[in-house]
Model the fold of this input.
Amino acid sequence: MNWKKDDGMTRVLITGAASGLGRALALVFAQRGARIAVADIHAERGAETVTLCLQAGAAEAHFLPLDVGIEGNFADAAEWVSRHWGGLDILVNNAGVAGGGSFDGIPEADWQWMLNINLLGVVRGCRAFTPLFKQQQHGQFVNIASMAGLLNPPGMASYNVAKAGVVALSETLAAELSPWNIKTLVVCPSFFPTNLNESLRTHDAGMKIALPRLLGNQELSAADIAAGIVKALDQGESQYLPHPKAVEAWQVKCAEPEKHAAALRAQALKMAGLKQP
Ligand SMILES: NC(=O)c1ccc[n+]([C@@H]2O[C@H](COP(=O)([O-])OP(=O)(O)OC[C@H]3O[C@@H](n4cnc5c(N)ncnc54)[C@H](O)[C@@H]3O)[C@@H](O)[C@H]2O)c1
Done:
Protein backbone atom coordinates (compact mmCIF):
# COMPACT_ATOMS: atom_id res chain seq x y z
CA MET A 1 0.00 0.00 0.00
CA ASN A 2 1.89 2.96 -1.37
CA TRP A 3 -0.03 5.66 0.47
CA LYS A 4 0.32 4.38 4.04
CA LYS A 5 3.28 5.58 6.02
CA ASP A 6 5.12 2.98 8.12
CA ASP A 7 4.35 4.82 11.36
CA GLY A 8 0.63 4.66 10.64
CA MET A 9 0.47 8.46 10.54
CA THR A 10 -0.65 9.14 7.01
CA ARG A 11 -0.69 12.87 6.17
CA VAL A 12 -3.84 13.87 4.29
CA LEU A 13 -5.07 17.22 2.96
CA ILE A 14 -8.69 17.35 1.80
CA THR A 15 -10.19 20.35 -0.01
CA GLY A 16 -13.86 21.02 0.67
CA ALA A 17 -13.62 18.96 3.86
CA ALA A 18 -15.99 21.21 5.82
CA SER A 19 -19.03 19.38 4.45
CA GLY A 20 -20.45 16.39 2.59
CA LEU A 21 -18.06 13.92 0.99
CA GLY A 22 -14.95 15.83 2.10
CA ARG A 23 -16.01 15.65 5.75
CA ALA A 24 -16.98 11.97 5.43
CA LEU A 25 -13.55 11.20 3.95
CA ALA A 26 -11.81 13.13 6.71
CA LEU A 27 -13.63 10.97 9.25
CA VAL A 28 -12.62 7.70 7.57
CA PHE A 29 -8.97 8.81 7.55
CA ALA A 30 -9.37 9.97 11.16
CA GLN A 31 -10.55 6.51 12.19
CA ARG A 32 -7.25 5.21 10.78
CA GLY A 33 -5.30 7.63 12.96
CA ALA A 34 -4.19 9.89 10.12
CA ARG A 35 -3.02 13.50 10.33
CA ILE A 36 -5.61 15.59 8.55
CA ALA A 37 -5.71 19.09 7.08
CA VAL A 38 -9.30 20.22 6.57
CA ALA A 39 -9.06 22.80 3.77
CA ASP A 40 -12.12 24.86 2.89
CA ILE A 41 -13.57 28.35 2.52
CA HIS A 42 -16.19 27.59 5.22
CA ALA A 43 -14.33 28.18 8.51
CA GLU A 44 -17.20 27.34 10.89
CA ARG A 45 -18.03 23.98 9.32
CA GLY A 46 -14.31 23.33 8.88
CA ALA A 47 -13.81 23.74 12.63
CA GLU A 48 -16.65 21.26 13.22
CA THR A 49 -14.93 18.74 10.94
CA VAL A 50 -11.69 19.21 12.90
CA THR A 51 -13.49 18.46 16.19
CA LEU A 52 -15.20 15.39 14.69
CA CYS A 53 -11.86 14.11 13.31
CA LEU A 54 -10.17 14.41 16.70
CA GLN A 55 -13.11 12.61 18.34
CA ALA A 56 -12.85 9.86 15.68
CA GLY A 57 -9.17 9.20 16.43
CA ALA A 58 -7.14 11.46 14.16
CA ALA A 59 -3.53 11.89 15.29
CA GLU A 60 -3.88 15.57 14.34
CA ALA A 61 -6.53 17.69 12.63
CA HIS A 62 -6.17 21.31 11.50
CA PHE A 63 -8.34 23.74 9.58
CA LEU A 64 -6.58 25.46 6.66
CA PRO A 65 -8.46 28.32 4.99
CA LEU A 66 -8.12 27.47 1.30
CA ASP A 67 -10.03 28.71 -1.74
CA VAL A 68 -9.33 26.30 -4.61
CA GLY A 69 -10.16 29.15 -7.00
CA ILE A 70 -6.98 31.00 -5.98
CA GLU A 71 -3.61 29.54 -7.04
CA GLY A 72 -1.66 31.17 -4.20
CA ASN A 73 -3.80 29.40 -1.59
CA PHE A 74 -2.42 26.02 -2.73
CA ALA A 75 1.15 27.33 -2.56
CA ASP A 76 0.44 28.33 1.06
CA ALA A 77 -1.02 24.88 1.79
CA ALA A 78 1.99 23.10 0.25
CA GLU A 79 4.29 25.28 2.34
CA TRP A 80 2.20 24.51 5.46
CA VAL A 81 2.39 20.71 5.07
CA SER A 82 6.12 20.86 4.35
CA ARG A 83 6.76 22.99 7.44
CA HIS A 84 4.47 21.12 9.85
CA TRP A 85 4.56 17.57 8.54
CA GLY A 86 7.69 17.41 6.38
CA GLY A 87 5.53 16.38 3.38
CA LEU A 88 2.16 14.95 2.36
CA ASP A 89 0.96 11.46 1.47
CA ILE A 90 -2.53 12.10 0.07
CA LEU A 91 -4.14 15.17 -1.52
CA VAL A 92 -7.90 14.88 -2.02
CA ASN A 93 -9.16 17.42 -4.57
CA ASN A 94 -12.80 17.33 -3.48
CA ALA A 95 -14.07 20.93 -3.23
CA GLY A 96 -16.81 21.63 -5.74
CA VAL A 97 -19.94 23.59 -6.58
CA ALA A 98 -23.16 22.95 -8.53
CA GLY A 99 -24.38 24.79 -11.58
CA GLY A 100 -26.03 24.52 -14.97
CA GLY A 101 -29.45 24.80 -16.53
CA SER A 102 -30.37 25.06 -20.21
CA PHE A 103 -27.20 25.59 -22.29
CA ASP A 104 -28.15 28.89 -23.94
CA GLY A 105 -28.98 30.43 -20.59
CA ILE A 106 -25.63 29.82 -18.87
CA PRO A 107 -23.73 33.12 -18.93
CA GLU A 108 -20.00 33.12 -19.59
CA ALA A 109 -19.40 34.36 -16.05
CA ASP A 110 -21.02 31.17 -14.71
CA TRP A 111 -18.89 29.03 -17.05
CA GLN A 112 -15.79 30.74 -15.71
CA TRP A 113 -16.93 30.32 -12.10
CA MET A 114 -17.68 26.61 -12.65
CA LEU A 115 -14.46 25.83 -14.53
CA ASN A 116 -12.37 27.87 -12.11
CA ILE A 117 -13.55 25.90 -9.08
CA ASN A 118 -14.50 22.42 -10.35
CA LEU A 119 -11.76 21.97 -12.97
CA LEU A 120 -8.95 24.47 -12.36
CA GLY A 121 -9.32 23.91 -8.60
CA VAL A 122 -8.21 20.31 -9.20
CA VAL A 123 -5.51 21.34 -11.70
CA ARG A 124 -4.12 23.81 -9.12
CA GLY A 125 -4.06 21.18 -6.37
CA CYS A 126 -2.18 18.72 -8.58
CA ARG A 127 0.22 21.43 -9.84
CA ALA A 128 1.02 22.65 -6.35
CA PHE A 129 1.80 19.21 -4.94
CA THR A 130 3.44 17.40 -7.87
CA PRO A 131 6.92 18.88 -7.16
CA LEU A 132 6.70 17.75 -3.51
CA PHE A 133 5.41 14.29 -4.50
CA LYS A 134 8.24 13.96 -7.07
CA GLN A 135 10.79 14.94 -4.47
CA GLN A 136 9.33 12.40 -1.99
CA GLN A 137 9.15 9.75 -4.72
CA HIS A 138 5.63 8.99 -3.60
CA GLY A 139 2.21 10.61 -3.28
CA GLN A 140 -1.45 9.97 -3.96
CA PHE A 141 -3.94 12.28 -5.66
CA VAL A 142 -7.64 11.59 -5.16
CA ASN A 143 -9.69 13.67 -7.59
CA ILE A 144 -13.45 13.86 -7.08
CA ALA A 145 -15.10 14.02 -10.50
CA SER A 146 -18.65 12.76 -11.16
CA MET A 147 -20.60 10.33 -13.34
CA ALA A 148 -21.74 13.58 -15.01
CA GLY A 149 -18.26 13.77 -16.53
CA LEU A 150 -18.70 10.32 -18.10
CA LEU A 151 -22.43 10.25 -18.97
CA ASN A 152 -22.95 13.94 -19.93
CA PRO A 153 -26.66 14.31 -19.09
CA PRO A 154 -28.56 17.27 -20.59
CA GLY A 155 -29.10 20.49 -18.64
CA MET A 156 -25.71 20.40 -16.89
CA ALA A 157 -23.24 21.42 -19.62
CA SER A 158 -20.82 23.45 -17.50
CA TYR A 159 -20.73 20.88 -14.69
CA ASN A 160 -20.32 17.99 -17.16
CA VAL A 161 -17.44 19.73 -18.95
CA ALA A 162 -15.64 20.53 -15.69
CA LYS A 163 -15.97 16.95 -14.41
CA ALA A 164 -14.99 15.41 -17.78
CA GLY A 165 -11.88 17.58 -17.52
CA VAL A 166 -11.15 16.17 -14.06
CA VAL A 167 -11.41 12.63 -15.48
CA ALA A 168 -9.05 13.53 -18.36
CA LEU A 169 -6.55 15.20 -16.04
CA SER A 170 -6.60 12.26 -13.63
CA GLU A 171 -6.09 9.63 -16.32
CA THR A 172 -3.22 11.69 -17.76
CA LEU A 173 -1.49 12.09 -14.38
CA ALA A 174 -2.02 8.43 -13.44
CA ALA A 175 0.30 7.56 -16.33
CA GLU A 176 2.58 10.60 -16.53
CA LEU A 177 3.53 10.69 -12.84
CA SER A 178 3.79 6.91 -12.35
CA PRO A 179 7.61 6.91 -12.80
CA TRP A 180 7.82 8.87 -9.51
CA ASN A 181 5.49 6.44 -7.70
CA ILE A 182 2.74 9.08 -7.73
CA LYS A 183 -0.73 7.58 -8.00
CA THR A 184 -3.99 9.19 -9.07
CA LEU A 185 -7.45 7.90 -8.22
CA VAL A 186 -10.44 9.52 -9.94
CA VAL A 187 -13.83 9.09 -8.26
CA CYS A 188 -17.07 9.42 -10.23
CA PRO A 189 -20.13 9.30 -7.97
CA SER A 190 -23.74 9.73 -9.04
CA PHE A 191 -26.04 11.81 -6.78
CA PHE A 192 -25.89 11.43 -2.98
CA PRO A 193 -27.13 13.65 -0.12
CA THR A 194 -24.83 16.58 0.85
CA ASN A 195 -25.03 20.37 1.07
CA LEU A 196 -24.07 20.75 -2.62
CA ASN A 197 -27.36 22.50 -3.41
CA GLU A 198 -26.25 25.51 -1.31
CA SER A 199 -23.71 26.43 -4.00
CA LEU A 200 -26.09 26.09 -6.96
CA ARG A 201 -25.85 28.82 -9.60
CA THR A 202 -28.51 28.58 -12.28
CA HIS A 203 -30.93 30.71 -14.27
CA ASP A 204 -33.19 27.68 -14.63
CA ALA A 205 -36.21 27.35 -12.32
CA GLY A 206 -36.46 23.63 -13.23
CA MET A 207 -32.95 22.97 -12.01
CA LYS A 208 -33.64 24.73 -8.72
CA ILE A 209 -36.41 22.19 -8.14
CA ALA A 210 -34.63 19.17 -9.65
CA LEU A 211 -31.25 19.36 -7.88
CA PRO A 212 -32.51 19.01 -4.28
CA ARG A 213 -34.59 16.01 -5.43
CA LEU A 214 -31.61 14.40 -7.17
CA LEU A 215 -29.41 15.01 -4.12
CA GLY A 216 -32.02 13.09 -2.13
CA ASN A 217 -30.88 9.86 -3.84
CA GLN A 218 -30.40 7.46 -0.93
CA GLU A 219 -28.62 4.71 -2.92
CA LEU A 220 -25.34 5.57 -1.15
CA SER A 221 -24.41 8.03 1.61
CA ALA A 222 -21.31 10.24 1.70
CA ALA A 223 -19.97 7.86 4.37
CA ASP A 224 -20.49 4.83 2.09
CA ILE A 225 -18.61 6.56 -0.75
CA ALA A 226 -15.81 7.69 1.58
CA ALA A 227 -15.35 4.11 2.83
CA GLY A 228 -15.28 2.91 -0.79
CA ILE A 229 -12.64 5.49 -1.71
CA VAL A 230 -10.31 4.33 1.04
CA LYS A 231 -10.84 0.72 -0.04
CA ALA A 232 -10.02 1.71 -3.63
CA LEU A 233 -6.81 3.37 -2.34
CA ASP A 234 -5.91 0.23 -0.38
CA GLN A 235 -6.32 -1.75 -3.60
CA GLY A 236 -4.23 0.72 -5.64
CA GLU A 237 -7.06 1.48 -8.07
CA SER A 238 -7.03 4.42 -10.48
CA GLN A 239 -10.81 4.75 -11.02
CA TYR A 240 -13.70 4.30 -8.59
CA LEU A 241 -17.35 4.45 -9.72
CA PRO A 242 -19.38 3.94 -6.52
CA HIS A 243 -22.99 3.82 -7.82
CA PRO A 244 -23.96 0.48 -9.45
CA LYS A 245 -26.91 1.95 -11.43
CA ALA A 246 -24.70 4.66 -12.92
CA VAL A 247 -22.09 2.03 -13.77
CA GLU A 248 -24.78 0.19 -15.75
CA ALA A 249 -25.46 3.38 -17.74
CA TRP A 250 -21.72 3.81 -18.30
CA GLN A 251 -21.47 0.23 -19.58
CA VAL A 252 -24.36 0.89 -21.99
CA LYS A 253 -22.58 4.03 -23.24
CA CYS A 254 -19.36 2.06 -23.87
CA ALA A 255 -21.05 -0.97 -25.49
CA GLU A 256 -23.99 0.72 -27.26
CA PRO A 257 -23.31 4.47 -27.58
CA GLU A 258 -26.43 5.10 -29.71
CA LYS A 259 -28.67 3.56 -27.04
CA HIS A 260 -27.12 5.90 -24.46
CA ALA A 261 -27.53 8.90 -26.78
CA ALA A 262 -31.21 8.00 -27.33
CA ALA A 263 -31.80 7.79 -23.57
CA LEU A 264 -30.25 11.26 -23.11
CA ARG A 265 -32.38 12.67 -25.96
CA ALA A 266 -35.51 11.27 -24.27
CA GLN A 267 -34.41 12.95 -21.03
CA ALA A 268 -33.88 16.25 -22.87
CA LEU A 269 -37.34 16.06 -24.49
CA LYS A 270 -38.87 15.52 -21.07
CA MET A 271 -36.96 18.51 -19.69
CA ALA A 272 -38.05 20.63 -22.64
CA GLY A 273 -41.65 19.59 -22.04
CA LEU A 274 -42.01 18.05 -25.52
CA LYS A 275 -43.47 14.69 -26.48
CA GLN A 276 -41.39 11.83 -27.96
CA PRO A 277 -41.83 11.82 -31.77
N1 LIG B 1 -23.42 15.31 -3.88
C1 LIG B 1 -23.46 14.77 -5.09
O1 LIG B 1 -24.51 14.28 -5.53
C2 LIG B 1 -22.20 14.69 -5.92
C3 LIG B 1 -22.19 13.83 -7.03
C4 LIG B 1 -21.03 13.72 -7.80
C5 LIG B 1 -19.91 14.46 -7.45
N2 LIG B 1 -19.95 15.30 -6.38
C6 LIG B 1 -18.76 16.07 -6.06
O2 LIG B 1 -18.35 15.81 -4.73
C7 LIG B 1 -17.55 16.89 -4.27
C8 LIG B 1 -17.98 17.27 -2.87
O3 LIG B 1 -19.26 17.87 -2.92
P1 LIG B 1 -20.41 17.56 -1.84
O4 LIG B 1 -21.51 16.89 -2.61
O5 LIG B 1 -19.84 16.91 -0.65
O6 LIG B 1 -20.93 19.07 -1.58
P2 LIG B 1 -20.87 19.98 -0.26
O7 LIG B 1 -21.41 21.31 -0.71
O8 LIG B 1 -21.53 19.33 0.88
O9 LIG B 1 -19.31 20.12 0.02
C9 LIG B 1 -18.47 20.89 -0.83
C10 LIG B 1 -17.46 21.64 0.01
O10 LIG B 1 -16.62 22.37 -0.88
C11 LIG B 1 -16.40 23.65 -0.32
N3 LIG B 1 -16.05 24.61 -1.36
C12 LIG B 1 -16.84 25.16 -2.32
N4 LIG B 1 -16.14 26.02 -3.07
C13 LIG B 1 -14.88 26.01 -2.58
C14 LIG B 1 -13.69 26.70 -2.91
N5 LIG B 1 -13.66 27.60 -3.92
N6 LIG B 1 -12.57 26.43 -2.22
C15 LIG B 1 -12.58 25.55 -1.19
N7 LIG B 1 -13.68 24.89 -0.79
C16 LIG B 1 -14.82 25.13 -1.49
C17 LIG B 1 -17.71 24.01 0.37
O11 LIG B 1 -17.51 25.04 1.36
C18 LIG B 1 -18.10 22.67 0.97
O12 LIG B 1 -17.57 22.52 2.27
C19 LIG B 1 -17.71 18.01 -5.31
O13 LIG B 1 -16.57 18.04 -6.16
C20 LIG B 1 -18.94 17.58 -6.09
O14 LIG B 1 -18.95 18.09 -7.41
C21 LIG B 1 -21.06 15.43 -5.60
The mean pLDDT is 95. Residues 11-244 form a domain with the Rossmann fold fold (CATH 3.40.50.720). The first strand starts at residue 11 and ends at 15. The chain has ten helices and nine strands.
